[in-house]
């Protein structure tokens, strides 16, 4: 089953899976992430062929407005990014969905307002109590914001999968049990939106955290980093992220970058995949 989610599965599988995502407008927030099951019958096959925009059109004609998809397929997110309709954060979350399995252990290294933590909870939590999200932030207000968002947007079994820590992410190896192989470590660098803009991630601790993350990460896992270069210190942080990425051996790591070349301060997505 898990092999279906392997990044190197056949392209035809990938297309089939990415087309199975569809909104579930009649339910609450948590169901926005619902995935229709993989198409098994001919009818479901054609259901899966319905594109997201077709669904939106159908909804618009026949009733209430569709709830926008929180996490799109990689294909849709990437095309959206290329055509200026999707943000780097959306591409990142769409990629996570192809790497992370239900029951996995993942880390949100910068919880902030909790949007990434919430997305990760929806990917890993299961009713058997497997799946674990560790959320870290250096500001207590960010931990509080994340906690409130989870309270509003998750079911009880999902909330149980989350542990939040008011701690610097450079100390993640002191928190995560060594026996838990980690599938994903997500960094969304910079400052807390709506918070104190002087409290930002800084190159030194970011580098320490990346080093710790690279050791905790399991094979076929991903480190995802969004870097903001529009604020003071942002470029220095990008330099550190790039230097760290370049230092990783190509035999065991793939390091790549998504960057808008004609929008110099647009956020940059760096993905480090452990083979
Ligand atoms: C851009 S925000 C993260 C946004 C968040 N991922 C979300 O979905 O809302 C960056 C966060 O990093 C946190 N941060 C800054 N330095 C940190 C550090 N050394 N360790 C952990 N978190 C840190 C900030 O407090 C801020 O909340």
From TrEMBL:
GO biological process: methylation
Keyword Transferase: yes
Gene3D superfamilies xrefs: Vaccinia Virus protein VP39
Signal peptide location: none
Keywords in alphabetical order: Methyltransferase, Transferase
Entry's Gene Ontology molecular function annotations: methyltransferase activity
Any matching Pfam family: rRNA_methylase
PANTHER family in UniProt: S-ADENOSYL-L-METHIONINE-DEPENDENT METHYLTRANSFERASES SUPERFAMILY PROTEIN, TRNA (MNM(5)S(2)U34)-METHYLTRANSFERASE, CHLOROPLASTIC
Protein name: rRNA methylase YtqB
Organism field: Carex littledalei
């Amino acid at each position: 089953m898990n092999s279906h989610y392997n990044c190197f599965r056949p392209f035809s599988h990938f297309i089939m899976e990415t087309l199975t995502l569809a909104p579930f407008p009649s339910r609450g927030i948590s169901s926005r992430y619902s995935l229709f099951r993989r198409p098994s019958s001919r009818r479901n096959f054609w259901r899966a062929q319905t594109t997201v925009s077709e669904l939106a059109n159908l909804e618009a004609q026949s009733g209430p407005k569709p709830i926008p998809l929180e996490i799109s397929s990689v294909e849709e997110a990437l095309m959206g990014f290329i055509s200026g309709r999707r943000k780097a954060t959306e591409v990142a979350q769409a990629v996570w969905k192809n790497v992370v399995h239900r029951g996995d252990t993942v880390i949100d290294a910068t919880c902030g307002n909790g949007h990434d933590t919430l997305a990760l909870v929806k990917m890993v939590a299961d009713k058997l109590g497997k799946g674990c999200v560790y959320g870290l932030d250096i500001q207590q207000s960010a931990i509080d914001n994340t906690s409130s968002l989870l309270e509003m947007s998750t079911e009880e079994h999902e909330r149980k999968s989350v542990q939040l820590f008011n701690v610097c992410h450079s100390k993640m190896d002191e928190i995560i049990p060594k026996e838990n192989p980690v599938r994903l470590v997500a960094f969304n660098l910079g400052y807390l939106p709506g918070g104190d803009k002087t409290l930002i991630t800084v190159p030194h601790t970011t580098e320490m955290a990346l080093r710790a993350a690279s050791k905790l990460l399991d094979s076929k896992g991903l480190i995802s980093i969004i870097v903001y270069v529009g604020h003071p210190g942002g470029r220095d942080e990008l330099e550190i992220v790039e230097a760290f990425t370049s230092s990783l051996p190509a035999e065991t790591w793939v390091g790549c970058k998504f960057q808008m070349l004609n929008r110099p301060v647009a956020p940059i997505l760096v993905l480090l995949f452990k083979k």
